[in-house]
Design goal:
Blueprint: E1 6-9, E2 12-15, H1 26-30, E3 33-41, E4 44-46, H2 48-61, H3 70-84, E5 89-96, E6 113-119, H4 126-131, E7 133-137, H5 158-169, E8 174-178, E9 184-187, E10 191-196, E11 199-202, H6 213-225, E12 229-231, H7 236-240, E13 244-249, E14 253-260, E15 263-264, H8 272-284, E16 289-291
Parallel strand pairs: 7-8, 7-14, 11-12
Antiparallel strand pairs: 1-2, 1-6, 3-4, 3-5, 4-16, 5-6, 8-9, 10-11, 10-13, 13-14, 14-15
The protein binds 3-[O-phosphonopyridoxyl]--amino-benzoic acid (PXG).
Length: about 300
Amino acid sequence: MESERWVFLNGEYKRKAEATISVFDHGFLYGDGVFEGIRVYSGNVFRLHEHMVRLYESAKSILLDIPYTLEELEAYVVETVRKNQLLDAYIRLIVSRGDGPLGLDPAECEIANIIVIVDKIRIYSQELYDRGLTAVTVPTRRNIPDALNPRVKSLNYLNNILAKAEAKQAGAGEAIILSSDGYVTEGSSDNIFIVKDDILYTPPCYLGALKGITRQAIFDIAEELGLPVKEEPFTRHDIFNADEVFLTGTGAEIISVVQVDGRPIGEGVPGPISKDLVTQFRKLVTVDGISAFPAEVKV
Ligand code: PXG
């Protein structure tokens, strides 16, 4: 089911090559905007509504008016998936401040640019899912929440990009980012969990982490499996001595971390609880969300 890529741009569907915006867009000039990354599994747009709610909350937080209702934009996202005829895909939904003069004032930008891209994505190789990732804590600390709250999924990802680059320079697959006072916050584009004595721990978002949709899915699956989850601050020491460590995100899905800062985690291989969570997650992703290709639509 391969076909041409169509991009939703401000109410129209454009071919990839024609889907362009101005260099005066403040998303480009200043990173002034918000976005979502969403996955489609076997035609099911996984937890689309939750992503839409987070998008509108991010926009509200940065005083950005989205010129559609949540329901309208949600329908456009589904329609863009359908137009691209992709059963398994990645959606990048972008709301940027829009075109304006050179100068910071967002009030000078008349209307937001709304973009929906649907394409394929693969962040890690299958081998890394089977064997697990190595990670390092990086020198760059997470943005402090009272400067720019990391709960806002903004177009300003330099903090995360620097963390990722530092991890790569150190020869690791992913970064673990600490808060300015040394607590574990998250990965460069994923939330982090540790398992200790059959209890899951993940940092509270107020420390400087995105309220991940996949993170919430883990909470839901853990509840079904009878595994307690605690949102509690923890440190590198807790990671080194965890039984299992894994990362969660729309891009990365669920991936085990088997070594952190040179210390093997548990047995140094993906652990049984992480594997159980992956099994349950695989079942959830094809059914929990909005179907882009209901039975009557032939694809
Ligand atoms: N923290 C950060 C900073 C993120 O950017 C997550 C956590 C996980 O959240 P979700 O809701 O996805 O479970 C993210 C999400 C990419 C890519 O292109 C990145 C994300 C999502 C999709 C694709 O690398 N980050």
